[in-house]
TrEMBL record:
One of its GO terms (biological process) is rRNA processing. It comes from Zygosaccharomyces bailii (strain CLIB 213 / ATCC 58445 / CBS 680 / BCRC 21525 / NBRC 1098 / NCYC 1416 / NRRL Y-2227). This is ZYBA0S07-02520g1_1. InterPro entries: REX1-like_exo, REXO1/3/4-like, Ribonucl_H, RNaseH-like_sf, RNaseH_sf. Residues 337-497 form the Exonuclease domain. One of its GO terms (cellular component) is nucleus. Gene3D superfamilies: Ribonuclease H-like superfamily/Ribonuclease H. Residues 8-19 have a biased composition (Basic and acidic residues). It is found in: Nucleus. The lineage of its organism: Eukaryota, Fungi, Dikarya, Ascomycota, Saccharomycotina. GO terms for molecular function: exonuclease activity; nucleic acid binding. Belongs to the REXO1/REXO3 family. Residues 1-20, 67-104, 118-145 are annotated as: Disordered. Its main location: nucleus.
Length: 678
């Protein structure tokens, strides 16, 4: 009888089906067999000696890896084999094989037979030893965190490259639950137990303040001994203080503002896209472009009383030295209520003095354009910038007071004034006004904040025409005022996202979204008291370092994140510290270096004492020694554009060395927690 031929495809299908059935049977058998951990668990609770013998016998003949590689039901032998290979490849001398060898040894087995309690302890110690050896023993994230929470909080600076301000900022965010960061050079233990972060931003710190040789670089030192530093002598000597070098932001050709860099983090592409979509759908008016009070104070604008809606006592420290300033008053008038204004200044022995004022209305009509007789003899007409010459001012009779009064008669308190880097114009006019639109704020520099774009770059980029092109004839204040008005109109038409990259987010805003309350303390804050105790973000205006440190102590229980900007060491050592130095009226107000450091040391002790367990305190310099860099930049800024470019190229190596020195910063980190017994 002929045997029917079975097609190869059908034969192949039957073989595959048979193989699958065998695999399923094998898998079911594996799943029904008690796993290694199941047997150990049964052994740990069993008091029956016969049962214990049986379990140990099973343990001796079991293959732990085959038992444990099945985490969930699967119908594929390939998956089973893949998991077995993956588990087997992870084996090490301190992994599960070691545990199995220990359990198979006669000593361990005899102990298990003789005393179940001792046997349970041996199994537990074997499991703990295996778990500590590496990733081959799976432990849930929840269990790891629970185990880590029992350890003290600590920080170790890993060897290699220096830390950056970004590392410190990202670790701060991670303390409050932001898991989107990794720290390649900082190793935290029990980071989740940190509940508060206090940052003391203190430029002017030097090598000798940290117990190393005066004049040496921070990034050339691998070890810092806190016991040799007077900064920490008031703290508990058992306290572990981690001190390490920190590279300030910048490049080999430039130095970036460290404080702003720490406070502003780059947004991810996804976050930028979301934020841009949110803003792009909003129709705006010119009122949406008005400067905030914080921005006005940060950029050294004179503050109008209505802006603060506060008493003269509150205004006095903000407007210190502005006795000759006048405030715009409310009155009714016809015509435009939006004006663009620009001033030209020349240099006198007493600083910059007003020499021309120009103003246009919303329809680009020139409503005011006057040359002004300078209040003091001119030492430099700055013609390449101002367009003013000695000849132009020779027959001018309009006084400063007259020009100031003219503007006050044209502009009501309710009107809107537009300008570019407008604080310079208002300070030259000595006028305070509440409603300001600044084109250097509503349009971003390509490098992002805190840099501010030049007006000529904005007009060429967005308006397709050029201004300030005549090096010899200088700027034209009417032309500049019209450019500002054009830029504002263009912004209103295109929306809030036009002209900005939305590349950064303030760290306090980010912390607010994470449920953490933040408090900033510096002399550029908008108030010297907290106006809304329930606010997630608050600020206190502090002129002295002691006010900053006392402010942290007084509010330590109310907020989660504190950043105080101190200036004593920088003032004492002659560091240039930007606009934050502007309130220092005389050398009598500049502290000695020892007094500044004593104030800092005492403040850290008081903050530490007032803090609750789980507080991280960070002292950072931000920058290194900026004195050489600041002097070089001041010399370059005094030159005209062509000469400046040539001299900068000649001094390229000198400038690069000064920048390297200015970027060599330092940080010290310690924690308030229950110290382990001695």
């Amino acid at each position: 009888m002929d045997v029917p031929t079975i097609p190869k495809d059908a034969e192949k299908g039957d073989n595959e089906l048979s193989s699958k059935n065998e695999n399923l049977a094998e898998l079911q058998s594996i799943q029904e067999t008690p796993s290694f951990s199941d047997r150990v668990a049964r052994l740990s609770i069993s008091k029956d000696s016969e049962m214990n013998k049986k379990i140990i016998s099973e343990l001796k003949h079991s293959n732990r890896f085959e038992d444990q590689c099945i985490d969930s039901p699967s119908g594929s032998t390939a998956i089973v084999e893949k998991r077995r290979r993956r588990r087997s490849s992870a084996q090490s001398s301190c992994g599960p094989d070691k545990e199995m060898r220990d359990l198979n040894s006669s000593n361990h087995l005899n102990t298990l037979l003789q005393s179940p309690q001792e046997g349970q302890q041996i199994i537990k110690s074997s499991q703990d030893e295996s778990a500590s050896c590496g990733p081959e023993v799976p432990v849930s994230l929840k269990k790891r965190r629970k185990k880590e929470a029992l350890k003290p909080i600590s920080l170790e600076k890993l060897p290699g490259k220096p830390a950056t301000l970004k590392d410190l900022r990202d670790s701060t965010l991670a303390c409050f639950g932001d898991d989107s960061f990794c720290f390649p050079v900082l190793k935290f233990t029990n980071l989740r137990s940190i509940k508060k972060v206090v940052v003391l931003f203190t430029p002017g710190l030097q090598a000798q303040d940290f117990g190393i040789t005066n004049g040496s670089k921070f990034n050339e030192n691998d070890h810092f001994d806190a016991s040799k530093s007077k900064l920490f002598e008031r703290l508990n000597p058992r306290l572990k203080i981690e001190i390490f070098p920190v590279t300030a932001p910048g490049s080999k050709n430039s130095l970036y503002p460290a404080y702003n860099h720490f406070l502003n983090k780059l947004l991810s592409k996804r976050d930028r896209k979301i934020r841009k979509e949110e803003l792009s759908h909003k129709k705006i008016t010119i009122n949406d472009l008005l400067m905030s009070l914080d921005d006005m104070i940060e950029k050294n604008f004179p503050i109008h009383p209505r802006t603060l809606n506060a008493t003269e006592a509150l205004l006095e420290p903000l407007n210190e030295g502005q006795n000759a300033y006048l405030d715009t008053k409310k009155f009714d008038h016809d015509g435009s209520h939006i004006f663009a204004l620009d001033c030209e200044m020349c240099l006198s022995a007493h600083g910059h003095v007003l020499t021309r004022v120009s103003m246009v209305d919303f329809d680009m009509n020139v409503i005011y354009d006057e040359l002004v007789k300078p209040e003091a003899p001119i030492t430099d007409y700055l013609t390449r910038y101002s367009g003013i010459t000695e000849e132009k001012l020779s027959n001018v009779t309009k006084t400063f007071e007259e020009a100031q009064r003219d503007i006050l008669n044209l502009v009501s308190e309710d009107d809107i004034l537009i300008g570019h880097s407008f604080e310079n114009d208002l300070n030259a006019l000595k006028i305070r006004h509440p409603n300001i639109v600044d084109t250097s704020v509503i349009y971003e520099h390509k490098a992002g904040p805190p840099f501010r774009p030049a007006l000529r770059n904005l007009t060429s980029t967005y308006l397709n025409y050029n201004i300030q092109t005549g090096e010899k004839v200088g700027h034209d204040s009417v032309e500049d005022a019209k450019a500002c008005m054009d830029l504002v109109k263009l912004k209103i038409v295109n929306g809030l996202t036009f002209g900005i990259s939305l590349s950064t987010e303030n760290i306090c805003e980010r912390l607010s979204s994470l449920g953490a309350r933040s408090l900033r303390l510096n002399e550029n804050a908008c108030r010297n008291q907290i106006s809304n105790p329930n606010s997630m973000e608050a600020s206190i205006r502090c002129v002295t370092d002691k006010e900053v440190l006392d402010g942290i102590v007084n509010h330590i229980s109310e907020y989660d994140f504190f950043i105080g900007r101190l200036k004593g060491p920088a003032l004492a050592r002659g560091y240039v510290y930007g606009s934050s130095m502007r309130h220092v009226a005389s050398p009598l107000e500049i502290p000695s270096a020892s007094d500044a450091l004593d104030t800092l040391a005492l403040g850290m002790e008081e903050i530490y004492s007032a803090s609750s367990d789980g507080t991280m305190i960070v002292l950072m310099s931000g920058n290194g020694d900026t004195r050489e860099y600041s002097q070089l930049m001041a010399d370059l800024d005094a030159l005209d554009r062509e000469t400046k470019t040539k001299v900068r190229q000649e001094k390229a190596h000198e400038l690069e060395a000064a920048i390297n020195k200015a970027r060599d910063g330092v940080a010290a980190v310690f924690f308030k927690q229950n110290l382990p017994p001695e």
